[in-house]
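**Entry details**
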Amino acid sequence: MSSAIRDNTVGRRFELERNGHLAFATYERRGEDLVIRHVEAAPPLRGTGAAGELMRGVAEIARAEGRTITPLCGYAYTWLRRHKDYHDLLN
């Protein structure tokens, strides 16, 4: 797991903090599946690559846990489709 990505199990979201601002991905673990419901970055982080870094961390976590990813969020789906190294995780 990327050390920059925090798994907030109480809030059921992965978080990346940069300069006091947060990017996060809400999730649900369902069996062997990691369902990504929503990805959001605070306005100051938009356009900085923070959401992409967060998604890379989420994908690495899923891979380490032996899970597939079901992206319900358009951003998560598009990110996974654009990164061929993670196509094996797409459910």
Summary: The CA atoms of residues 3 and 57 lie 9 Å apart. The chain has one domain: 5-89.
